[in-house]
Task: structure prediction
Amino acid sequence: MNGPLIVQSDKTLLLEVDHELAEACRRAIAPFAELERAPEHIHTYRVTPLGLWNARAAGHDAEQVVDALVEFSRYPVPHALLVDVAETMARYGRLTLSKHPSHGLVLTTTDRPVLEEILRSRKVQPLVGERIDPDTVAVHPSERGQIKQTLLKLGWPAEDLAGYVDGEAHRIDLAEDGWALRPYQKQAVEGFWHGGSGVVVLPCGAGKTLVGAGAMAQAKATTLILVTNTVSARQWKHELVKRTSLTEDEIGEYSGTRKEIRPVTIATYQVLTTKRKGVYPHLELFDSRDWGLIVYDEVHLLPAPVFKFTADLQARRRLGLTATLVREDGRESDVFSLIGPKRFDAPWKEIEAQGYIAPADCVEVRVNLTDSERLAYATAETEEKYRFCATTATKRKVTEALVRKFAGQQILVIGQYIDQLDELGEHLDAPVIKGETSNAQREKLFDAFRNGEISVLVVSKVANFSIDLPEATVAIQVSGTFGSRQEEAQRLGRVLRPKADGHQAHFYSVVARDTIDQDFAAHRQRFLAEQGYAYRIMDADQLLTDD
Amino acid sequence: MGIGELAREAHVPAGTGAATAPRTLAEALRARGDEGLAALLRARPDLLSPVPNDLTQLATRAGTRASVVRALERLDRFTLQTAEALAVAPDPAPYPVLLALLTGDDGDPDVEAALPRAVEALREQALVWGEEDRLRLVRTARELLAPSPQHPSPTGLGPAVVEATAGMSPGRIQEIIATAGLPATHDPVSAVAALTELFTDRERMGELLDTAPSEALTVLDRLVWGPPYGEVTADPAPPVRWLRDRGLLLPVSTRTVVLPREAALHLRGGRAHRTPEPHPPALSVLREYRPQVVDSAAAGQAYTALATVEDLLKSWDRGGPPVLRAGGISVRELKRVAATLDVTEPVAAFWLELCYGAGLLASDGEADERYAPTPAYDDWLDLPAAERWSRLVTAWLTATRTPGLVGGQDAKGRTLSALGADLDRGAAPEVRRRVLTLQATLPPGSAADPETLLARLRWERPLRGGATASAGAAGARGGQAAPARTGPEASPGTTGTTGGTGYGGGRQGGGYGTGAPTLASTSDLRSRIAVWTLTEAEMLGITGRGALSTPARALLNLPLAEAAADALTGVGGGVELSVAASRAATLLAPLLPEPVDHVLLQADLTAVAPGPLQRPLADMLGVLADVESKGGATVFRFTPGSVRRALDAGSTASDLHDFLTAHSRTPVPQPLSYLIDDVARRHGHLRIGAASAYVRCDDDALLGEILADKRSASLRLRRLAPTVLAAQTDPASLLDGLRSMGYAPAAESAEGDVLVTRTDAVRTPARTAPAPVPDGPPAPDTTLLAAAVRAIRAGDLASTAVRKERPETTRPADGGLPRTSPAETLATVQAAAMTGSAVWIGYVNAEGAASQRVIAPVRVEGGFVTGYDHTADEVRTYPLHRITGVAELADDQV
Result:
């Protein structure tokens, strides 16, 4: 009766981290509960149907879940919750997708009424073929993803036993000379490979690329890698050449500028989703080779059309990589049904404790607007309000003070509005990277920053993702995409690469007090706060006085 | 039932000694000891009100239909089967005959063992009396249970040969016995006896049936287990004819035939019931837990129950929903409660009814009636948790209100609303207790299988249970000529009808949805109550994971395990429910989670209370933060809004800091302190107040002067700013006041302009002049008058024309009362008064007696006619409205 876990009636689990059994408990509940918040004392997990089905997919049964809850719970577990867990888990696996020797892809059931129920659904009807016997119905092979998605929405997730095609074999090995996969990266690769398909969640800077490389080395097959932009594509290529037996020639880039198809091809989401005359001309990339593995980088950003293509790729192994499986559009369940369940998840603070990402000091600097700015803000049009308060001159002064404070360190100033960034670049005498900056120019600037030739870089949201700038130690955020939680996390990720000298990273968010900017900031910080990053709040006046 | 029959049973014939066998029920009762009579009265308490004068009266009352029906309804299935078998046995029946009916030809050791107990039970309840060789079922019971066309027997047996042949012609009977291969007899009685003898003789009957065509046997097969009636055409098929010719099917009406009882018994191997059920179905254990697991699960749920009740009533703290005109709360309000508690609506209804039953909430009785917590709720809140629980469960255990019915419909199709009328079900407390005591028969920690529990309940009260196995045959005959009613339930004036009919249309059992057993056959009320009981007991923490908890055993006054019993020493050993409840509370108290006095504050602006919070702490946190998640622990979230709420409630920022520091196990995180300071910084920055008028002046010295002047005190001025004073008096008084002090103030408009105070003449808004309201109708003009006169003339002409033509028709030929219309009557008597002639009238006096009179009207006024009455030979006055008609006399009669 003094376990570390408290089971709440709303199906959240509170784990007291300082309890001696906390680690054992965490291991026991991790397979089925989603870590929702990880602040300093009590971590919150949530039991969701998706999580329970994930656990079933990973081979856990309801008995284990119930036992874990009962064993570690401090107070008696509500009976209704246990019943609900058992009932929810029992829904998984009543339907299975498998290969039939003569009928191809079939959906079979162990519980006939369930099959009857789902076949009566208008959404399922177009996806299935003839009824082979009372318990089996044929499924159009092209609808494998669609039907999984639909069944999940109906609450009867299908277990996909139809297997994967091996794809065209291609030798890929990790070149572990002087480095090795970190333990959690190995676990992630194993977790993914064992499950066949799925998503690996790792903090920014924790080496997701290497998890991708590890997965490729397991698959030893031609691989299609989908990334967010060209710079990121180049970084992937660079990293793969460095860390694996692959050579430059074996890796192709498929982007707006280059259209190479090689055994390992890195394509951007943008080029795939380019629509010309109502069709997606680059879609054939998916069929251009017999891919054995498809890697989705930053899966939380997967554009809707790519979801649709992915539905057709259910026979290929799929690996999703992300730092934040938080989608502002709430399509997490599509990720689950189309890419696969979450196979590995590590809390940020845990990786930080292991020293693989730098500890970060997160500070929110509250800026008092001047009286005239306040008046102007009060009278601004609603849609202009955020832009106005996010780009005030006072903020610029505070940013300059911050840059002065950290003079000598590698500083990134990140913002949303180009005018603001240009102005900042002018005042700070720093180059600005924005959408219109050419790729060559970008690479040049990033290189200069890495080498220490430039110490301050002003970047727009083009640098939100996948830009590897290991030497950046200070990030100053002046404005953002409203209340986006994952953007905040990604931006923090820019400074989380472990530093050579092991010192702390700094993440400053400059926020205008008593404005909508402050509300957005609060929302943006939620994810990181829930990951255990405690924001300090600081008055700008204090900073300016120190200055 | 015949009165004579009753009398025979009840009456004491003179000169009967105690030594001889009793000849009536009364005698049998008289022969009983006091114990026996007490047992009878205990089993059938309805016989006690009022207390009968003597045994004869007791016997008579025990034989009344209502009482017998009541007693039969309380029999368990096997005892009822025994009674049913007696009802189809000869009267009186020797014990072996009864035994044979129940066991069949093959014998059944179980039945043999159980039968004496069943007979004894029937005897105790005065449903059966007489010696072992002459067992008699009370006449009324026999009538209720014996088969008849209106009342098919639960056994599925038809009438005996002698009953079925009652109306048959002797010739036809002789034909039947001849065809059946029996010698002719002299009279129908002996013929029927011979046929009966044939049917009851297994050997000869077997031989007879051996000769039957196989289709005939199929027909018999269909009828053998009932219903025994079959429809035939006027010209039946050969197999049916074969059976009919041999009396194996006897005609009931032109189209219906019946399989006589003796034949059916032969085909059944002598058994009255297809499956006698001598033993109650055993309760099976669904799952077994360690008793500690059960107790802790139950305690957890008990705690949740308390929290739920508190949440519910707290949400009604400032007044609950209005009371519907028909009582109860509306569906929308119920939905709201469900949303508040985050439960389904049936569960919400349960909590509402629980609070209501425990007296924690009631209607406030105001004109605009609403529900609200009662003062008892405040007392309840002050009790220790375990006692709060025991108060709830004792109220629940004895309540007749049945929340499971909410949402269903009553017999008139009205929806039953939570807290509304018509939710009382007399059976509920008994079923609840029975369900729990049955579970208590299992070893501690065992959860009973609900299906077997329900089967057991149905076995114990088959007639109350609606569809039963033995009545199933009867119930199956839908669409047949015979009615599909089961046993005495169909009898008028009994309580049995509540079982299946009215509420069957409502929601099925198990509607709570939260892990309630989904049972197929739960249409009858008792089973539904039982299912609800299981769910409700789980929600109240009486059971944990489906098994009865130790405190609940104490509550039910059941023997406890030693350890638990030790804990109770000194709590008293009575059997009163209140004592049991306090014992239960004592056992529960150590199982409930200990309230904690601290929270854990975290940088993401949440606070976690790792257990139930002490009340003052919980109340304060409830203001300072929003509750995000509830359960064993509580998660609070601090938001600017919640902090502002605390500041509004009178706390200062430093109060809040101190409070958090004092109650947090962990350092107060910087963002939280910052949040409180940040909100406090802005709190009260803008100040709002009310003023009736203001004084404005550019010279602040002058305003200072006014304030300093004592005469301004009555104006209640307050300086808001150097140049502004606010006043609590209206602008006119303020102007007057300042003028009287010697100042020359000017009034200001809302826009700040000086108001020119020229006295304007007062005008109303635009108005229309009042329309005249004359006393009478307006004076008619000539056109109207002319039209009126024309109409009157025409009417007059018409009526006179009719009057002259009518005399013949109005005068009844046979001396009946004359009938004329009131107008005609008036006209005729007026005419007679004027002419002094006599008329003949029909008159009805105040008692309603009709008479005919000849009167000579003298005066007609005010609805009365006064005249000389020739019949009475005096002057009388008659009200006109009593005169049915009038006719002029023929001239020669005057």
Notes: The mean pLDDT of chain B is 79. Residues 291-315 of chain B form the longest helix (25 residues). Chain B has six domains: 3-145, 161-267, 285-472+507-589, 600-682, 694-740, 807-893. Residues 97 and 171 of chain B are 33 Å apart (CA to CA).
